[in-house]
Write a structure and sequence with these properties.
alpha/beta, Rossmann fold, 5 helices, 5 strands, 42% helix
Length: 160
């Protein structure tokens, strides 16, 4: 069966947690995010750093490729890309799961987002329900493709 494609988000100081979650999920899911594997010891400075655009475009492409977004929440930091990634994921109608406690972002309160207290709880649920989850995501992808096809105009139809 095809593995669910997952993008993992967190603040930079919680990058190690993202790495550990990626390792735990990789046997049952395809981890498409790579930012947490970058060889960095501190968060890159944004101002005056031309590499930031490259990283942002890479992360955006990986986010688009994913079917599920997992976001670590509940730390004191309010900056960083995870809030932007949450907004993009909502706009792209991705499935979103949060790990941690609500911090201050009102979008984390949207009812259809699943919240897990710990990453281990999330891993346990995915491990126990793997086949159901994969089937659900396959169905969602098929429905999305049908919707895209239905929205595309028929080139043979001409209006005078």
């Amino acid at each position: 069966m095809t593995k669910v494609k997952v993008y993992i988000c967190s603040s930079f100081p919680r990058r190690k947690e993202a790495q550990i979650l990626a390792l735990k999920l990789s046997p049952i899911m395809e981890i498409v995010s790579t930012w947490h594997r970058d060889d960095l010891t501190v968060a890159p400075r944004v101002v005056g750093n031309p590499e930031i655009l490259h990283r942002a475009m890479r992360d955006f492409a990986q986010l688009r490729k994913s079917q599920l977004i997992i976001i670590f929440i509940g730390d004191e930091l309010t900056g960083g890309g995870r809030h932007t990634e949450l907004g993009l994921a909502l706009g792209m109608r991705k499935s979103i799961m949060l790990v941690g406690d609500y911090d201050s972002n009102p979008f984390e309160l949207i009812p259809y987002l699943r919240i897990f207290k710990t990453a281990d709880e999330l891993v346990e649920e995915f491990t126990n329900l793997r086949e159901d989850i994969e089937a659900d995501f396959k169905w969602r992808d098929e429905q999305a493709e049908l919707n895209r096809t239905a929205e595309e105009p028929d080139e043979e139809v001409k209006i005078n």
